[in-house]
Design brief:
Elements (H helix, E strand, L loop, with lengths): L1 H32 L2 H5 L1 H11 L4 H24 L7 H39 L2 H7 L4 H40 L3 H11 L2 H29 L4 H33 L1
Helix pairs in contact: 3-7, 4-5, 4-7, 5-7, 5-8, 5-9, 5-10, 7-9, 9-10
């Protein structure tokens, strides 16, 4: 009967979702358990930091620059209505450090580095490199997954900081150089408004959590991808979609906790 088939399909999808969630939790636990290799042979992690972090630097800096310029332009037009143009530096810096810097940098990191991690590990599985490692008594989680995981966790806060710094510079270029806001007011208002503990550290915590989430999702999807071209492409798509949703959801949760504790 159609109803029975529908219920059976719903049950099958529910069981499969719970199974994947448990497998993902076990995968993350094993990654943390075998992370000693990432630090004993730190050159593996440094290589992955270059691949995921340094290679993402150009898009992070360019995007941060233009986001800061847009904030400077829009913020000036808004503050001009209330005669508060001197607070433009505070507006740009707080918007970037608290919110836009970590979130947009994480979204770009997921699109560029996260998808690359998934595709790379998926292709290694499709070409049976993972199976070859297991046959040679080499733990693929310790050798392949853990260095990439810690590379993503280390790279994400640094990329978010660079995104925010370039955004502030972009706001300075538009506000001070092009529009003519007083330079002293721009920097002094910014220094007085931005608090290290409540603003900068909150942004660092967000970017660290985003780095853990994005990298874990990317590695799991690559390791769990079916060993076919279609399977790898589907896993790459799921990485970008799930990482983006996870970033936005975690951003709301972390912001709620941070405002409650402020």
């Amino acid at each position: 009967m159609p109803i029975v088939k529908s219920l059976r399909a719903i049950g099958h999808r529910s069981v499969n979702s719970v199974w994947r969630l448990g497998f993902a939790a076990r995968f993350l636990a094993l990654t943390l358990f075998y992370s000693g290799t990432s630090f004993r042979r730190f050159h593996l992690t440094v290589k992955e930091i270059f691949s995921s972090g340094v290679m993402s630097l150009i898009i992070i800096l360019v995007a941060g620059m233009f986001v800061g310029m847009v904030l400077g332009l829009q913020g000036f037009e808004t503050l001009k209505r209330y005669g508060s143009e001197s607070a433009l530096g505070s507006l740009v810096a707080l918007s970037l450090v608290r919110e836009l810097g970590p979130v947009l940098a994480a979204l770009l990191f997921a699109s560029r580095a996260g998808s690359a991690m998934t595709a790379e590990i998926g292709l290694m599985k499709a070409t049976e490199q993972i199976s070859a490692m297991e046959m040679m008594a080499v733990n693929p989680i310790a050798r392949v997954v853990a260095p990439r995981f810690w590379a993503g966790v280390i790279s994400m806060p640094l990329l978010a900081a660079m995104f925010s710094a370039m955004g502030v510079f972009g706001g300075y270029v538009v506000g001070v150089v092009l529009i003519g806001v007083d330079e002293g007011s721009f920097w002094s208002q910014m220094q007085g408004a931005v608090d290290f503990q409540h603003d900068v550290m909150n942004g660092v915590i967000k970017s660290f959590v985003f780095g853990v989430a994005v990298t874990a999702i990317a590695l799991f999807e690559g390791f769990d991808a079916p060993p076919t071209a279609e399977g790898v492409s589907g896993a790459t798509t799921r990485t970008v979609v799930q990482s983006s949703l996870a970033i936005l959801m975690l951003d709301f949760v972390l912001t709620a906790f941070m405002f409650r504790g402020a």
